[in-house]
Amino acid sequence: MRTRASVALALAAAVALSGASARGAAAQTKRILPQAESAVFRCGLLIDPASGRTVRDAVIIVAGGKILWTGPAREARLPDGFRTVDFGTKTVIPGLIDSHGHLFGGLVTRHTTCDLLGPLYLAAGVTTVRSPGSMEPEGDMGFRNRVDSGRYLGPRVFHSGPYIEGDPVTVAWMNPVRTPEEVRLKIESWIRAGATSVKVYANLKGDLLRTAIEFGHLHGVKVIGHLGAATWREAILMGIDEIFHGILELPEVTPAGASVKDRNRWLASVDLDRPEIKDLLRLAAESGVILTPTAVIAEPLDPVRHHLEEERRFLTAEAWAKLEERRAESSSADGPGVMAKVRRFIRMAYDAGCLLSTGTDQVGFALLPGFALWREMEVFAEAGLPPMDVLRAATVNGARAIGRSDLLGALEAGKLADFVVLDGDPLEDIRRIRAVHRVVKGGVLFEPESVLAPVLGRLD
Fold this sequence. Notes:
With 460 residues, this protein is of the alpha/beta class. The chain has helices at 8-18, 117-123, 137-149, 180-193, 206-218, 232-238, 263-267, 275-287, 308-312, 317-330, 335-351, 371-382, 387-393, 396-402, 448-452, and strands at residues 39-48, 53-63, 66-72, 83-86, 91-94, 96-98, 126-131, 156-159, 197-200, 222-225, 242-244, 290-292, 355-356, 419-422, 436-441, 444-446.
């Protein structure tokens, strides 16, 4: 069963790496973050989607958790005293970013922060997650803080706090805002608590939506949204930074009174050649709005396509039974038609020049962290995006989405040393993104199976 207190093995590993003592009052205030080494990493192929650069027989020089230099080994000036880590012929890409990666959910327990998700993200090469709204924002903030301190193994977490939702609420447990002042107070209190973005939800509209966007920007954070009562056009013209769910939550084409339950039926018949859709995508591109389609939430579960047997080892017996039930329920005659529309919409957005990022929105554990982002990238490739642009969506565009292009998303001097070592070349086949050999986060090297050990058989 999941425990919210700790991941024991991860804690022990972190303490061992840092040498922190468990004795004495002074020790209680020490950070136990694993210390990044000064190291020279060598690989057979380096891929940097931010620049489009590929380098054979490459070197990455790292110190203090940041990249000092990258380039061909023949041009490197290797510093004295740095450890050398040689990955042979393997491929290195920047750390992956899930820009819609929740920290709560489950197949049995659904409404609380799940501390065990951290190792799953990290072992999959997802070194950064933006949590876009939460059922339990205090728990998610605690999760982030424990990862930052080294108590938990997991990705960097950027957090939106609670949803900013209108009245009536879309989901029963959300607390609505009814006045511009309530919007401002809620946003300000959570930014003070550490939120790095504002998430507006489906029934926020009009002056309340405008207030949320303007006040978020006044505080220097991104405003991101799952729209419904307000159209994409309205939100874009108000200045929203990122819109989630693509064709799945596009008010401009949603029939009046349509429910999520009926979505597959009407989506399969949506005419994507309508001029207003093309105009809308052009407006999004011109405005620099990032689109995160979360395609995987619409795809019926498939044992082969989704590698469910590989997921099974992390689930309790009860959770696996629930997943089997959900797989049977998700088999829909409209599913293939909906996914065809989802893929085409992604390609239309790409052709219009829109900035696309990868997000997964998995709170029901149909797909687990890592598995979900890998599948999202595969859907982007199936939509016709070149592999380099799929990698760009999952790295540099994700960094832009969360507002940290200064530190994340690229393999270049000055950026944090976050990267993934793969057994194959994803430019030849994006599915090779699943073959993660090692992960480096902040200059600290992780072996995936060791990171995953505390999670085996425990997720419910």
